[in-house]
Amino acid sequence: MAYDDGNIFARILRGEIPNKTVYEDEHALAFHDIRPQAPVHVLVIPKGRYVSSDDFGAEAPAEAIAGFWHAVSRVARDLRLDQSGYRLIANHGANSHQEVPHFHVHILGGRSLGPMLVKRG
Ligand code: AMP
């Protein structure tokens, strides 16, 4: 899947749409999710043009991958979630219901999050 420069996170990175930033460095931007699904719900995105975790893991330079994951754990610590615990989610493709085609990791915490997936059937 080709990267779409019009996706909402690309527009946030270009400063065209406001966001509630919690952290930024050369590799990553972290901001509050607009529709939080937990008391703390922050998204971390790489600065590069990657559609999803599949694309990022396969194509990003090692420095960008290391910098991104360093930012994820730093943001979780800054949010004081490292003691109480948190969940990371990264959706890829149709079965995951990925909405925004720019790789992002959700950091969720602030309460007990229950089972990892809703059981069906
Ligand atoms: P996903 O389904 O993994 O692609 O998640 C996309 C997430 O982006 C959802 O949790 C949305 O609530 C969130 N989102 C969409 N637009 C914005 C925005 N402008 N600012 C912050 N979060 C957003």
Explain this structure to me?
With 121 residues, the protein is of the alpha+beta class. It has one domain (8-109): HIT family, subunit A. Helices cover 25% and strands 21% of the residues. The protein is built from three helices and five strands; from the N terminus they run H-E-E-E-H-H-E-E. It has a five-stranded antiparallel sheet, covered by helices on one side. A hairpin with a 7-residue loop joins strand 2 and strand 3 (40-46). The longest helix has 17 residues, at 62-78. It is globular and about 35 Å long. The termini are far apart. The model has no long low-confidence stretch (mean pLDDT 97).
Strand and helix map with partners:
Blueprint: H1 8-13, E1 21-24, E2 28-32, E3 40-46, H2 53-59, H3 62-78, E4 86-89, E5 105-109
Antiparallel strand pairs: 1-2, 2-3, 3-5, 4-5
Bound molecules: adenosine monophosphate.
